[in-house]
Amino acid sequence: MERTFSIIKPDAVANGLTGKIVARLQEEGFRIVALKMVHLTLAEAEGFYAVHRERPFFASLTKFMTEGPIVPMILEREDAISRLRDVMGATNPANATVGTIRKMYAESIERNVIHGSDAPETAKFEMSYFFNAFEVM
Ligand code: GDP
Known about the structure:
By secondary structure, the protein is α+β, with helices and mostly antiparallel strands. It has helices spanning 10-14, 18-27, 42-48, 58-65, 80-88, 101-105, 120-130, and strands spanning 2-8, 31-35, 71-77, 114-116.
């Protein structure tokens, strides 16, 4: 069993997609071990995406992530990190495989509905950024 970290991004929460995305993840075999709704400050979004601070889209991305509530989650299943990336689809929905969450719901490379950790070290950092031990089941 492996754990990964995911966020239902502000675009998806605002569009009423939270329930659909959670249901899809459970259908794909992920067990939800932590979940809540939060509204990030700019400083909190900048801390979360610190690895991207030199990228040209950093300011726009962090502003987007603060525009409304988000739903961070910790998910567990076999090969959780790579399986979540498969279910999410490519960063740019134009390049995402049919049936993936981003292909179904995302409107652009930035407003792409869902985040998923890309490696064990980032998953560990991201889980601890949002959840303490009492919040993880
Ligand atoms: P991910 O692992 O598929 O989420 O992609 P990255 O780690 O490369 O990028 C993090 C997030 O930044 C993405 O999910 C998008 O929301 C955003 N992003 C990535 N590339 C671009 C880009 O070229 N332009 C803009 N505006 N946003 C981007």
